């Protein structure tokens, strides 16, 4: 009788252990499916090249540029220490002026932003290029020719919500249907997954 009782208890114990292990497996699967996966969506945007020439006057009395009145702050070149004459300034020896590059970039960024639809577009500051031409008849005045890439604004949070939980093919079809996207790449981790993670924080969107 005792032997039979021990066998019964062992059987019940094995069932409990099996149930426990099954529960752990289910939880582990949930963690793997819902939490651990990661999607990296790389989007190449359709960009346009914005070109414009702006008049300017260098002003030694200003601490910063004032784009609204076409003024860019300048510093007496004699006040710039040798170790400061690197990439931070444009040195104009003929007029004895050192122009902070940040001031020029601020001037152009504000000027360009005033001409584009900021609700739909944004400039790629890294692509900004410019050429300064001094006016021979006015010592501190001239023109700046600028070029910069302008791209559509993307609400990354909204985009992540729109594709979260979708199968790869469905997500790719959705993304490729957006007119401002030139190309789309989807990478999943782990690689065997066939859907975009349900948790939007695990959906990382990169634009270029």
Q: Mind explaining what this structure looks like?
A:
The protein has helices at 2-35, 101-113, 156-163, 168-176; strands spanning 38-45, 48-59, 71-73, 75-76, 89-92, 97-100, 121-123, 129-134, 141-152, 181-189, 203-207. It has 208 residues and is an alpha+beta fold. Residues 1-7 have low confidence and may be disordered. The chain is elongated, with a radius of gyration of 31 Å. It has 4 helices and 11 strands; from the N terminus they run H-E-E-E-E-E-E-H-E-E-E-H-H-E-E. The strands form 3 sheets. Strands 2, 3, 7, 8 and 9 form a 5-stranded mixed beta sheet that branches. The N and C termini lie far apart (76 Å).
Short description:
By secondary structure, this protein is α+β, with helices and mostly antiparallel strands. It is 31% helix and 33% strand.
SSE topology string? HEEEEEEHEEEHHEE
* Count of helical regions: 4
Overall, the morphology is: elongated
Would you report the number of β strands?
11
Major sheet summary line = 5 strands, mixed
Work out the helicity level.
25-40%
Q: Whole-Å distance between the termini?
A: 76 Å
Oligomer: single chain
Gyration radius (Cα, Å) is 31 Å
Q: Topology, please?
A:
Elements: H1 2-35, E1 38-45, E2 48-59, E3 71-73, E4 75-76, E5 89-92, E6 97-100, H2 101-113, E7 121-123, E8 129-134, E9 141-152, H3 156-163, H4 168-176, E10 181-189, E11 203-207
Parallel strand pairs: 1-11, 2-3
Antiparallel strand pairs: 1-10, 2-9, 4-6, 5-6, 7-9, 8-9
């Amino acid at each position: 009788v005792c032997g039979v009782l021990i066998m019964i208890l062992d059987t019940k114990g094995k069932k409990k252990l099996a149930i426990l292990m099954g529960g752990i497996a289910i939880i582990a699967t949930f963690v793997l499916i819902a939490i651990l996966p990661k999607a990296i969506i790389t989007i190449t945007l359709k960009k346009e090249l914005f070109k414009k020439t702006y008049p300017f006057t260098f002003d030694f009395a200003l601490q910063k540029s004032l784009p609204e009145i076409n003024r860019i702050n300048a510093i007496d070149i004699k006040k710039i220490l040798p170790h400061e004459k690197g990439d931070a300034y444009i040195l104009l020896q003929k007029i004895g002026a050192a122009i902070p590059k940040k001031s020029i970039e601020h001037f152009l960024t504000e000027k360009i932003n005033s001409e584009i639809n900021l609700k739909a577009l944004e400039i790629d500051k890294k692509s900004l290029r410019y050429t300064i031409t001094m006016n021979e008849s006015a010592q501190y005045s001239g023109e700046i020719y600028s070029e910069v890439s302008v791209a559509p604004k993307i609400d990354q949070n909204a985009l992540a919500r729109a594709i979260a939980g979708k199968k790869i093919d469905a997500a790719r079809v959705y993304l490729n249907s957006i007119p401002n996207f030139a190309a789309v790449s989807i990478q999943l981790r782990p690689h065997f997954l066939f859907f975009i993670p349900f948790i939007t924080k695990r959906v990382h969107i990169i634009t270029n």
